[in-house]
């Protein structure tokens, strides 16, 4: 069996992080390949033909190639299911649906916030400008939803860890790492998720500029 994950060479992609964490949590041996997106390496014929979409992350499992991080996570959970491998999504039907809803929402909404607090401000250099009105509205919406979802659930969204915890923590870190106002409960949650071994393995890959 061969597993290869393609990520961006600066390791700033939250979606590559999600796929990396999924593979690591599953305990699956894999090779990590990186592409310089700023140089357009993902647009070159070799990767274009491999990935179909030119996007990262891409997972290559033997002769099968898949992009889009949420699709990769779901594929891994079905290809390497529990109990043989740790689950990436909650066991209950409704909890799994809620986790998928959260993942899709975090990926499709919050454009002003993601632009004002891009992931380079999380991993490398904090932003110097305050949030604008649209980004602040997105932050308020995110904080409200996170507080509702975590209410009474302890350390994780659904009692036990799932990959949506990493995705939510990543979005919260856009605010926390830049000194924006975040309730202490959510700061503690994001900090605990950031200390998870799979996330720490990713952080240790960051280049030093």
UniProtKB/TrEMBL annotation:
Residue ranges constituting the GST N-terminal domain according to the UniProt record: 3-84
Alphabetic keyword roster: Transferase
Residue runs in coiled coils: none
SUPFAM superfamilies: GST C-terminal domain-like, Thioredoxin-like
Annotated Pfam families: GST_C_4 (PF14834), GST_N_2 (PF13409)
Superkingdom of origin organism: Bacteria
Entry's Gene Ontology molecular function annotations: glutathione transferase activity; maleylacetoacetate isomerase activity
Gene3D superfamilies associated with the record: 1.20.1050.10, Glutaredoxin
Keyword Transferase: yes
Protein name: Glutathione S-transferase
GO biological process: glutathione metabolic process; L-phenylalanine catabolic process
InterPro entries: Glutathione-S-Trfase_C_sf, Glutathione_S-Trfase, Glutathione_S-Trfase_N, GST_4_C, Thioredoxin-like_sf
UniProt source species: Rugamonas rubra
